[in-house]
Amino acid sequence: MRRREFFGLVGGAVAAWPVVARAQQKTPVIGFLSGAGQPNQTILTAFSQGLNEVGFVEGRNVAFEVRATDRYVQLPAFAAELVHRQISVIYAFCTANSAQAAKAATATIPIVFANGSDPVSLGLVASMSRPNGNVTGVTFFSGTLVAKRLELLRELVPQAATIAFLVNSTNARSELDKASMQAAARSVGQQFTLLSASNAAEVDAAFANAAQQRVGAILVNGDAFFTGQSQQLVALAAHHAIPTSYPSRSAVEAGGLMSYGDDRADSYRKSGVYVGRILKGEKPADLPVLQPSKFELVINLKIAKSLGLTVPDKLIALADAVIE
Question: What HEC string does 11-38 produce?
Answer without folding.
Answer: CCCEEEEECCCCCCCCCCEEEEEECCCC
